[in-house]
Amino acid sequence: MALTAAQLTDLQRDIGIGSDEAVFTDDELNRLFARTSSDYAMAVMYALRQLLVNAARFNNYIRYTSSGQATREDKSQIFDHLKEMYELWAAEAGGGAAPLVSGTIEQDLIEPYSTTEYT
Fold first, then answer.
1. Could you tell me the pTM of the whole model?
2. For helices 5-15 and 26-35, what crossing angle results, to 10°?
3. Among 87, 104, 106, CA closest to 96
4. In whole angstroms, what separates CA 62 from the centre of its chain?
5. In this predicted structure, what is the pLDDT of residue 109?
6. Are the beta carbons of 104 and 97 closer than 8 angstroms?
7. How many whole angstroms separate alpha carbon 37 and alpha carbon 1?
8. Strand pairing of 61-64 and 70-73?
9. Which residue intervals of the chain are DSSP H helices?
10. Which residue from 24, 59, 66, 99 has the fewest beta carbons nearer than 10 Å?
């Protein structure tokens, strides 16, 4: 089921997209909604997750003006804010999504090769 124009506008606002911004097309938002079996809160989470992946590539930087003053921009804050929004919507959706965890993932090693012969 395709979202109505009003629902598309609501979905964009819930993701944090202003009416003057073009982040997702209507087709992309409809696809997110369809992928979640028409679960609105989950569709918002999927959209935020896609934005998180993109935001993870941002860099922080310090720029110096000709007068020697430093201007600092922490673009990693965008990731942090998106992560907070994702977690809020995860609660709204009933916690159905895996939590976002920063850090290293440790796994048990699985023997990659089997010595079993197949016939």
1. 0.59
2. 80
3. 87
4. 26
5. 42
6. no
7. 9
8. antiparallel
9. 5-15, 26-35, 40-55, 76-92
10. 66
